[in-house]
Write a structure and sequence with these properties.
With 398 residues, this protein is of the alpha/beta class. Helix content is 39%, strand content 17%. The chain contains 14 helices and 15 strands. The longest helix is centred in the C-terminal third of the chain and has 22 residues. The protein is globular, with a radius of gyration of 21 Å.
Amino acid sequence: MNSQQWIEKADRYIMTTYGRYPIVPVRGEGCRVWDADGKEYLDFLAGVAVNNLGHCHPRVVAALQQQAAKLIHCSNYYHIPSQIELAELLCSHSFADKAFFCNSGAEANEAAIKLARKYSRDTYGPERYEIITATESFHGRTMATVSATGQEKVQKFFDPLLHGFRHVPFDDAAALAAAVGPQTCAVMLEPIQGEGGVNVPSPDYFREVRRICDEHDLLLIFDEVQVGMGRTGKLFAYEHFGVTPDIMTLAKALAGGAPIGTMLAREKYAAAFTPGTHGSTFGGNPLVTAAAVTTVRVMLEEGILNRTEEIGEYLLGELERLKEKYPFVMEVRGIGLMIGMVLTIPGADIVKQGHARGVLLNVTHDTVLRFVPPLVVTKHEIDRMIAILDGIFAEIKG
């Protein structure tokens, strides 16, 4: 079928929870995808920071094929070798001692919320349950993670939200300190806010957050669902800020595109989860963990992290060049290959123009173009995207 036929069928059978663009991708390789009509696109969204190794990385594809022929799913009642191997890889390359596996970033954040409350209840009693999060944050679409999210547009229509979350401005340690009370048990923050507009904190912010958490014995939770797994040029984004969390969540890019979520924690806090306190039917099954093990190994073995830092600086510089050329570009900010371009005008039409000219772009927070291409993107591909964006910008009046 061609793209229009697929779209017509989708309109009949799929709920309209997404404002979908009229694009039907059917094949991908590296930083390129092709739609059902054969049109080629440069992908600078990467499945929203999921396809960090590009589309259909050969080693990840092989891992999925080989595992699918052996065992796709069993149950977490049993020990799963690839899950164990993945847990060891993640813990040995991070602050963490233990891992819990689920299916998505929202589920990983749910697990973090539950673990923080369980530990605090065991240690201090039931009165200590509140979690401080940031305005403009995004933590997921479940009821608990919607309640934790600091964006009204995500929360509206779903009242009453869950009790026990307090929101303070991001990158404002004084506001966070003032919000701590006798009911506070944890602080949950994204090291860089993605959906909130690619907001990068000041250099000392997280050191002060860590100090506040230590002073009040609060758990520090880092939501690295979007920024983790090499996106910033480090395996984990917290490595940029000179602090370590007590709990960290991962998902998006962990398994090369296969659905997985993970919560990592220090032993002291992980011990609060005992049999029956939490679980997941599909979490960490043989298929997705085989893909994730290979994804992590590729990240560590093939120089992806150093390359991301280098190529990210190149992309940032090219976007800065456009900023100097066009007055409606206010700011370019980011780390590694997580970059936002802040505009004085809405970005939705720019995204559509990009699609028409063969590049997949994204706008978040209405006026921030977000660039999260695969970490294997080349300078040549960046140059092609910049030329397209330059052409679009040149046609904007005012």
